[in-house]
Design goal:
This protein is mainly beta. The chain has helices at residues 4-7, 18-22; strands at residues 73-76, 84-86, 97-99, 102-104, 112-114, 121-128, 145-151, 158-163, 197-205, 208-209, 215-217, 220-225, 228-235, 257-258, 266-274. The protein has one domain (73-132, 140-274): Jelly Rolls, CATH 2.60.120.560. It has 2 helices and 15 strands. The structure holds magnesium ion.
């Protein structure tokens, strides 16, 4: 099957209403690539990086932290990472730094993911970008982390909502903060300056697969950064890849993962409300 939506490019948002997504026709799955595209092996990262149009800046209003509502699944309570494990070896604990009610990437220790698996959910996360050395850090090497809405294995396998300091630094737009990495730039740049707390609120619907492993319905993501809409029911074309065109392979419920990209990004107040 040919990835027709992939051929349409990464800059255009493909949208349907929620009800339309729920009535997703099997014929529509013809637009999605199943399995690794044959050409991916020879592609270079730059082939899926776009620099325009640049999302306009919208300055967010005053930030208020948002504690978990009743019944939410708390993923971090300010005390420990007992709900998390190493994504590269799930038998090992998450070895990031917990201090003063927040946790911070410990560079070089690898990504961490939740012990619990999720399918469709509402998620809240607060994060804080570090102040970087602008002489030695540029673009993607500047406050980079990531929220993987579904982890599909070790490393960066899965679907990443980018976390980056796009207040201070520009990069390819489909890799800036709030992008669904290399698939959809954010609608606007709603970043706060580094060293200030920011929030993500996400509605994630996981993809579904038929008994034969074919795609039944694609993943969708709606996201707010600091209360501002940045992804409006974006339909993912598969895993978010650094190299090559996205594709799907069958999977079920998945952990949520955070990225160690060797930057001291901090997190707090993270909770989930499963929707199914
Ligand atoms: Mg990242």
């Amino acid at each position: 099957m040919v990835a027709m939506i992939a051929a349409a490019g990464c800059q255009s948002q493909t949208k349907t209403s929620s009800s339309a997504a729920q009535q997703f026709s099997p014929a529509d799955t013809m637009h999605f690539q199943m399995g690794v595209p044959a050409g991916n092996a020879s592609m270079k990262p730059e082939q899926t990086e776009y620099y325009s149009p640049v999302p306009p800046v919208v300055t967010p209003s005053t930030f208020d932290s948002m504690p978990p509502p009743a019944g939410a699944t708390v993923l971090f309570d300010g005390k420990n990472l007992n709900n998390w494990v190493s994504a590269n070896d799930t038998t090992k604990p998450a070895d990031w730094t917990v201090s003063d009610g927040i946790f911070t990437v410990k560079p070089g220790t690898g990504n961490i993911e939740t012990k619990q698996k999720f399918e469709d959910y509402q998620l809240h996360l607060e994060f804080r970008e570090p102040i970087e050395d602008t002489a030695n850090h540029k673009g993607q090497d500047y406050g980079n982390s990531g929220l993987f809405l579904a982890s599909e294995g070790t490393g960066d396998a899965g679907y990443e909502l980018q976390i980056l300091d796009s207040y201070s630094m520009s990069t390819y737009v489909n890799g800036q903060c709030g992008s669904l990495y290399k698939q959809y730039p954010p609608l606007v740049n709603a970043c706060r300056p580094p060293d200030q707390w920011q929030s993500y609120d996400v509605i994630w619907h996981a993809p579904r697969f038929n008994a034969d492993g074919s795609l039944k319905s694609p993943a969708t993501c709606t996201a707010f950064q600091n209360g501002i809409l940045i992804q409006d029911h974006s339909i993912l074309r598969g895993f978010t890849l650094y190299i090559g065109h996205p594709y799907y392979t069958e999977h079920g419920p998945s952990p949520i993962k955070l990225q160690d990209h060797h930057h001291l990004v901090s997190f707090r107040n993270m909770w989930v409300r499963p929707l199914n």
